[in-house]
Amino acid sequence: MINEEEYVIEWDIKTWKKAFTYWEKNIPWDKISHALEIGSRNGGPSWWIANKGIIIECTDRVDVQKNARKAHQKRGGNKNISYFDLDVLELEEIEKYDLVICKSVLGGVGHHGKTERIEDAINRIYKSLKPGGVFLFAENLVSSPIHVLLRRKMTKWGNSWNYLTEEQIHQMTSPFESTEIHTTGFLATFGRNEKQRSTLGSIDQILLPFIPKKWHYLGYGIATKKT
Q1: With bands split at pLDDT 50, 70 and 90, how would you rate the model's confidence at 63?
Q2: How large is the angle between the packed helices 13-26 and 194-207, nearest 10 degrees?
Q3: Domain layout of the chain by residue ranges
Q4: Which of 30, 48, 103, 126 has the smallest set of CB atoms within 10 Å of its CB?
Q5: CB neighbours (10 Å) of residue 110?
Q6: 5-224, which class in CATH?
Q7: Could you report the per-residue pLDDT of 159-179, keeping only the tens digit for each?
């Protein structure tokens, strides 16, 4: 169960919730004691994890105190959360965390086709994890030709975001012992508000079995470091 899912997930909830449901079921939470969120924005995933009794460092490239901490304080705060600004390309911790999470972050790190920056970020995340640690990711995928076209016209960052393929994610997480990736979503992303996205998300549940997997727009999963 995801408490405050509208806050934690923020947008396109019906689609992106699948990532959180998957993580909820497949992470041994009782073995996680220290976590890190990269690119927290408003801090939803940090809030979700902290409320499991886990210590988490909530970070973003800038203004994490202004955004995430302020959002958490409105909810009463949580002593398990600490805050500091961090660019993932400056992450230098070695075997510190049991879990690292990022949601819709890597495509921005590798903006304007700078895929090598994403590779650098993932390598730094890998090094920061303890043996047996897990990397939780959810990212926007290239998807279909119509997605590519409409993003350029409808999304202000559509021309700069680095949309990945499932194959690229597998390749970039190759240092990990294992990577499980799932994909979903087709129509919902075209909704202009959350009500429209929810309606289209319901239609997706009917259409997805008939849609080529490479046309899905969300990829999420878990990469596990060797023990």
Answers
A1: very high
A2: 60
A3: 5-224
A4: 30
A5: 23
A6: alpha beta
A7: 899 999 999 999 999 999 999
Name every residue whose Cβ is closer than 8 Å to that of residue 14 and which is 6 or more positions away in sequence: 188, 197, 198, 201, 202, 204
| 152 has a pLDDT exceeding 90 | no
- Predicted confidence (pLDDT) at residue 2 exceeds the cutoff of 70: yes
Contact 40, 108 (CB under 8 A): no
What's the whole-model pTM score?
A: 0.96
Q: Which residues contact 158 (CB under 8 A, 6 or more apart)?
A: 150, 151, 152
DSSP one-letter string for 153-221 = HH-TTTTTS--B-HHHHHHHTTTSSEEEEEEE-SSGGG-SSHHHHHHHHHHHHHHGGGS-GGG--EEEE
Query: To 5 degrees, how large is the angle CA 57–CA 61–CA 64?
Result: 55
CA–CA dist 197, 14 (Å, integer): 8
First to last CA, the chain: 29
